[in-house]
Amino acid sequence: MPPPARPRPASDAPPRELVPLERAEALRLLGRAPFGRIVFTVSALPAIRPVNHLLVDDVIVIRTHDGAALTTVAQGGDDAGVVVAYEADAIDPSTRLGWSVVVTGFARPVTDPSLLARYRGLLSPWVNASMDHTVAIRPDLVTGYRIAAVGTAAAS
Questions:
Q1: Strand, coil or helix: what is 152?
Q2: Model pTM?
Q3: What is the overall mean pLDDT for the chain?
Q4: Which residues sit opposite 141 in a β-bridge?
């Protein structure tokens, strides 16, 4: 089996530029992504977990299991929730083109029975575990960038 193809050196790559995304476009891209990474605080240190998500009504929804660090942190927050960051991206390693979106906001456990039923029907966990808890993130700060070849940003 041949070794995996290596991306070409940066010196061979055409020039790129970071193009800021409007909030609506950033959320649209995030909603299309199959998974992302959530960042939260555990014992005053950052923790990062890969998770699949759902974007519904501009809210990021994640299902978690009993005993998960995120479940514990979200349940321990006040009424506003706990501050988290959520990141998703799609960047081609060969062309080095794509996009990245980071959302900062408050995560809270979902307790409304009708919302829980709705989210459970729409979002299937990727891991084989009982995901009995649901966390919703209200995006307060949305930052997104497209990595585009120089001169093509307006066309993308």
A1: coil
A2: 0.83
A3: 87
A4: 104
